[in-house]
Amino acid sequence: MRIQEAFAVTASLIVLFTACSVAHAALPTACQLLDAQTAARLAGGAVATPVDGREILCAYGLKSGNANVLLQVNYAPGTDGSDTIPAMRTAAAQVGTAESIPGLGDHNLLYTKGSQGSFFLVYYHQKMLQLSVGRQLTPDLKAAMVQAIRQMLSKL
Length: 156
Fold this sequence. Notes:
Radius of gyration: 19 Å
Structural class: alpha+beta
Largest sheet: 7 strands, antiparallel
Number of strands: 7
Helix content: 40-55%
Number of helices: 5
Oligomer: single chain
Strand content: 25-35%
């Protein structure tokens, strides 16, 4: 009888781990989340072929110029960002500007370091997305970054 119970538990665990692996594999890659059209809108011009970094990183550079767009997607098990965003906001405010966008992900932080670039960190369902744009934040760029993140989150 105990062997049958052990077999049932083992079979259940195998099904659970297989389902988790399939769900993980079904998630879009960083370059599927950040397409060339969105990258061009964020960079301010036509972009070159992306550098695809093992599914979690996608980077585009302008065809002419030095602006770039980077998306990094990481798993953040056990956190929604509430434990890291406040400290990051304080640190970012010391070197630039920092703000949160209400209703976007679980927690988020949009910060800029002047001409060094704009960075948008968003936690959503135990995933962390960081969208970096290598140019000065303007109202139009801010709106485009928010729109891009909203589209990405809808695919997760």
